[in-house]
Specification:
The chain is about 10% helix and about 25% strand. The longest helix is centred in the first third of the chain and has 10 residues.
Length: about 325
């Protein structure tokens, strides 16, 4: 059963002073208005599907982003989705319909990657360098092996893979595991923390974890992908594969496991790295969301609503402290 903690008056203030300090190493967002919450919802580890875990979830003590220590759930993932099919990503010919391919996110829109989409890439991007198929056979040029995946599904793609559709398969991930930590009880930070955008950044890059243990990842590096004249489609669930992260999401499309809400609120799809719940996109609450894309109600406490799928984004920043 989900544990609900009520913090009122001076109890809230004393907890905040104890657990939330300043951290000069983290980039903060000063324009985020953070207020005390009367209702705080603990993470419910039983919501994670066992099939997506490499080992049972345990509780460990971790140093947090504000320098405090806290109990966190240690979640070791397999890097694969178990509650829905992964793929397809790249169609095989320019005659294939949308059932043979995935989706592409561009300009805030979601496009089906069918044969016609690949055929028309030069027109779509107004650049005649795009030519990802053989005119005679009508076959689309795409990655065909683990070797191809290792060399094409990287930020710095070489010329050998120009005009390739990049499709890495689940069979390439036989032994991959990744470990993540989420605080058992989310705690408000003094300021929201921006996500990291590179190796020298201080904030985390992963946004959160879905109930199937697949991560909600940073935005896909679309400029790098397109700059190499490659296409790395997502499947209909918003995910694709690389050899380091495994299968990971760049958009929430309503395919992965979600927890329905009795009051008509959009479904819950996972937890952010700070322990606050992540819920489906809801256009009706946009004006009520803060800069992190979160808001508060007395049923769910503070929680996030993910961005709409075409944005290549989930949430904008972390409102709570997180495990280093």
């Amino acid at each position: 059963m989900k544990k609900v903690t009520y913090y009122i008056g001076f109890i809230v203030l004393s907890l905040s002073m104890f657990a939330c300090g300043s951290d000069d190493t983290n980039e903060v967002l000063e324009d985020t208005d953070i207020t005390d919450d009367l209702v705080v919802i603990d993470v419910d580890a039983s919501l994670f599907l066992e099939a997506g875990l490499s080992e049972s979830i345990t509780i460990v003590s971790r140093t947090m982003s504000d320098g405090s220590t806290a109990d966190c759930y240690k979640i070791v993932t397999t890097g694969l989705a178990t509650d829905h099919d992964m793929g397809p990503w790249c169609p095989s010919t320019i005659d294939d319909d949308d059932s043979a391919g995935g989706i592409w996110l561009e300009g805030g829109e979601v496009y089906d990657v069918d044969g016609a989409f690949v055929k028309n890439l030069a027109t779509f991007y107004n650049d005649n360098t795009w030519m990802m198929y053989d005119v005679d056979t009508r076959k689309i040029t795409k990655t065909e092996s683990l070797y191809d995946c290792a060399n094409a599904a990287i930020p710095d793609v070489g010329d050998d893979y120009e005009n390739y559709c990049v499709e890495c398969l689940p069979s390439y991930l036989e032994t991959l595991t990744n470990t993540y930590y989420i605080p058992v009880t989310p705690v408000k930070a003094s300021s929201a923390t921006a996500f990291g955008s590179g190796p020298m950044s201080s904030g985390p890059s992963v946004r959160g974890i879905a109930f199937n243990s697949v991560v909600f990842d940073a935005p896909a590096p679309v400029s790098n992908i397109l700059g190499a004249y490659t296409l790395a489609p997502f499947d209909d669930a918003g995910g694709h594969i690389n050899l380091a992260a495994g299968y990971h999401y760049h958009a929430a499309t309503g395919v992965s496991t979600q927890i329905a809400q009795d009051d008509g609120h959009t479904g819950m799809i996972g937890y952010a790295l700070d322990g606050y719940g992540m819920y489906n996109y809801d256009s009706s609450v946009l004006d009520d969301l803060d800069a992190s894309l979160g808001h508060y109600d007395e049923t769910r406490g503070y929680h996030y609503h993910v961005d709409y799928a075409g944005t290549n984004n989930f949430i904008n920043s972390l409102r709570g402290i997180y495990a280093n």
